[in-house]
Amino acid sequence: MATSTNTVELHVKGMTCQSCVANLSEELADVTGVVETSVDLNPEGVSTVTVTSDRHLEDTIFKSAVTEAGYQLVGLSRTSLSLAGDQKAENGDCDCNCGRR
Ligand SMILES: [Cu+2]
């Protein structure tokens, strides 16, 4: 199995205290593939929830987990960290026809 680590940042509205944090963390922990969740709580606005998984997970999976826990997913951003076994040599090959004729 290829080891790749996927990190997704969820922007979640409606979390106000540590039990919200625990609540959502639990919900996310139930998602297959999720290995780690960390929450940067912002009680007055949008909290940032960083989810690390060992596979690619669809946006809709996160959305339903957040909704299930009773909060609102207002945004999502991905930083795909390919840590191992995914080093393709990109030699900057030119796609266009320059220099060919
Ligand atoms: Cu709470």
TrEMBL record:
Question: Would I find Metal-binding among this entry's keywords?
Answer: yes
Instruction: Spell out the molecular function terms from Gene Ontology.
Output: metal ion binding
Domain named HMA is located at 6-74
A Pfam family reported for this protein in Swiss-Prot or TrEMBL: HMA
- Tell me the keywords, alphabetical order: Metal-binding
What InterPro entries would the database entry show?
Answer: Heavy-metal-associated_CS (IPR017969), HMA_dom (IPR006121), HMA_dom_sf (IPR036163)
- Superkingdom, natural source: Bacteria
The record, for CDD domains, names:
HMA (cd00371)
This one is known as HMA domain-containing protein
Q: Which organism is it from?
A: Boudabousia marimammalium
